[in-house]
Amino acid sequence: MKLKNTIFLATILMISAATLFGQTPTPKPETKTPETKTPETKPSEAKTPEAKPIPAAKLPTVKEILDRYVQASGGRAALEKIQTRSMKGSIELVPMGVKGTFESYGSAPDKIYNKLVLGGIGEIIESFDGKTAWSINPIQGNRDKTGDELAQMKISANFHRELNFEKLYSKIEVKGVEKVGDKDAYIIVATPTGLEPQTFYFDKQTGLLLREDITAISPEGKIPTKNYFDNYQEVDGVKLPFKVRTVLPQFELVMTATEIKNGVKVEESLFVKPKQ
């Protein structure tokens, strides 16, 4: 795997795993070749969403969409009750055929630890302790995240993000309705202070989050990233996606959880940056 791809992977790993913790059915992978493109690839998914023109009076408000999202995820009381979570599962880089495993641990309000083991590459570890974010991978070694990259990590690592939208984003707007696969979704564009907007697609029927678009910040620059969420299952009264498919310009990253446990003991040492 090329150096740039490995760096991209280390950056996206944290964002992909964090979305599993923060509650987020999807189309099949959008793998492309020069001659063909998959049926699931749609113009609306290749660029900034151009929402269907719907009279403002017929669109729900931001609060209505987010309140329904919380309720669809299990409700505020059930979500607040859970303060820690662990996950284990498999991962695959498409279409490279590179496979591996991942394990993740999260602790409220905003601590997260992810370890990815890929065949032929080795371990990639990323962690955030609420203040400091660091990563270790076979190419770069130990590295701290700073500036906008750190600011973005603080948002991605928020354990109860579905309950804290208005705290995490200084501007939130309803933009209309767009298709995600065969589902109609309400579009919300949320802008964090000092960072680029993120776009969220909430299923009109279920209220759950189907897709999230973000411009990920990495040492190699800004990476347009699309996360799709699938296979929701109820765990201790809350609905969690057991599959996240992350679409990047270079490749796709598919993370499939085989085990999710809530209320587990999470060692604080996981989040501590190793000594050089």
Commentary on this structure:
The protein has 276 residues and is α+β, with helices and mostly antiparallel strands. The chain has one domain (3-28, 50-259): outer membrane lipoprotein receptor (LolB), chain A. The protein is 18% helix and 42% strand. It contains five helices and 13 strands. It has helices at 3-21, 62-72, 76-81, 147-156, 165-168; strands at 84-94, 98-107, 111-118, 122-128, 133-137, 141-145, 171-180, 183-191, 198-203, 209-218, 221-235, 238-247, 252-262. A 13-stranded antiparallel β-sheet has the order 6-5-4-3-2-1-13-12-11-10-9-8-7. Strand 10 (209-218) and strand 11 form a beta hairpin. It starts with a helix and ends in a 14-residue tail after the last strand. Mean pLDDT is 84; it is low at 1-8 and 23-48.
Distance between the termini: 26 Å
Question: Could you tell me the number of beta strands?
Answer: 13
CATH architecture descriptor = Clam
Percentage of β-strand residues: 35-45%
SSE order, one letter for each helix or strand: HHHEEEEEEHHEEEEEEE
CATH class type: Mainly Beta
Helix amount, in percent? 10-25%
Strand order in the sheet with the most strands: 6-5-4-3-2-1-13-12-11-10-9-8-7
Domains, number: 1
Mean pLDDT level = 84
Instruction: Output the number of helix runs.
Output: 5
**Cα gyration radius (Å):** 18 Å
Q: The CATH topology is what?
A: outer membrane lipoprotein receptor (LolB), chain A
What is the CATH homologous superfamily assignment?
A: Lipoprotein localisation LolA/LolB/LppX
Low-confidence stretches at least 5 residues in length (pLDDT < 50)? 1-8, 23-48
Structural class: alpha+beta
Shape: globular
For the sheet with most strands, the description reads: 13 strands, antiparallel
